[in-house]
Amino acid sequence: VCSSDLRISILPLPNVTLNNDTFQCKNDSASFSSTSNNTVTYSWDFGDTTTGSTSNPKHAYKHIGTYTVRLISTTKAGCSDTFFSKIRIAEPPFANFTRTPYSGPGPLTVSFTNLSSGEINSYEWNFGNKDSSSKQNPGSEIFQQSDNGDTTYYVTLAVENKCGISVHKDSVLVFPRPKARFGTDKDAGCTPFKVL
Fold this sequence. Notes:
By secondary structure, the protein is mainly beta. 0% of the residues lie in helices and 51% in strands. It is built from no helices and 16 strands. Strands 2-8-7-4-5 form a five-stranded mixed β-sheet, with no helix packed on it. The protein has a five-stranded mixed β-sheet with strand order 10-16-15-12-13, with no helix packed on it. The chain is rod-shaped. It starts with 15 loop residues before the first strand and ends in a 21-residue tail after the last strand.
């Protein structure tokens, strides 16, 4: 009876711990890192047609969105494994609003419509009349008239997220309501009494 032995070596796959930023702002460098005791080459695909080959690369994304990052790690023996992670890229928001009406006699009720865009974490309205709001849509605000003539109220909306802040400023003009006044050339007399 003949017999033979065949030895098969099972080589280990890369032992990799992958870490990266899960959120970053557009055009800011995101950090990626991989820790391994048996990897000799790294092949990164950042999900936006760009690549890298170092163990701890940095990469800045030019467009907002969610990207799937791929790392192919290879050992000295040629064994490789693939790892995936995701990163979300954002940009500063854009503040904007409209007001209706923008002028009129006081007290003037003005409706505000928020037209801000982008990813927004907080809103801060300042109506210029000592009132403020942190609501996304504050609704209406009443602006009082002044006895000294026209009054201009400057309204600001600041919107903010992790990437920055944007401020939009506009104004509301309130003018006094006209006051009716009249008089006569005489305030007393005998009948028949005529006044002009």
